[in-house]
Hints:
The protein has helices spanning 28-41, 65-72, 77-93, 109-115, 143-151, 153-162, 168-173, 185-197, 201-216, 224-233, 235-260, 264-268, and strands at 4-9, 12-17, 49-54, 97-102, 105-107, 119-123, 127-129, 166-167, 179-181. The protein is α/β, with parallel strands linked by helices. The strands form two sheets. It has a six-stranded mixed sheet, sandwiched between helices. A three-stranded mixed sheet has the order 5-7-8. α1 (28-41) links the parallel β2 (12-17) and β3.
Amino acid sequence: xxxxxxxxxxxxxxxxxxxxxxxxxxxxxxxxxxxxxxxxxxxxxxxxxxxxxxxxxxxxxxxxxxxxxxxxxxxxxxxxxxxxxxxxxxxxxxxxxxxxxxxxxxxxxxxxxxxxxxxxxxxxxxxxxxxxxxxxxxxxxxxxxxxxxxxxxxxxxxxxxxxxxxxxxxxxxxxxxxxxxxxxxxxxxxxxxxxxxxxxxxxxxxxxxxxxxxxxxxxxxxxxxxxxxxxxxxxxxxxxxxxxxxxxxxxxxxxxxxxxxxxxxxxxx
Length: 269
């Protein structure tokens, strides 16, 4: 059984952590597969969004410590310790919109992977923690940088130094996740991902490049003019604009009909 399932469905790639018996703990082999999958998807022009999720109702219990301890006794222990960073950075580098679809607990290295995505959507029972200091190790894999970027210095320090859990409402309030999902998780995720990938490819990629530039400190607003002109000339963007104005016109027409329709009192008179 593959520890990472990869499924392409129209314009979406679904990457599923598949170690449910181990609560989707992150083995070195799983992280290598994830990094490899991301590197391959980066070259796929047909994929507009990448969704990271997990089997079994638990996003991830964090690093598979026994698996990593075995790697520490190999020929290159530093490379073994660094594989999680490579997987997280492969996620960060993807040109597609990336979404972590989180069920259940999201712990340690799992939190680092989720934080490496553009969006994090969590179902109502989810919770989050970084217990590394309680385990006697630092938060690694670039996780501290990502948490500070998402939560700010103070809240990231609170989470990491205290090792306490954040429930879904607190995670939402602090901006760790963008959405709490109640109801049929799979259906709602599918519908919302479909809304994203329906947008023109060019503007999705441009927006992702802007985000990556902002995150790396290399963003240059002067490039926006060329990107805007390119979008205005692109057939897919032109069709999107036509559809947008058509919807606006239809809504305005409905409002006009409602405004001019006689009331029940006027009909009676």
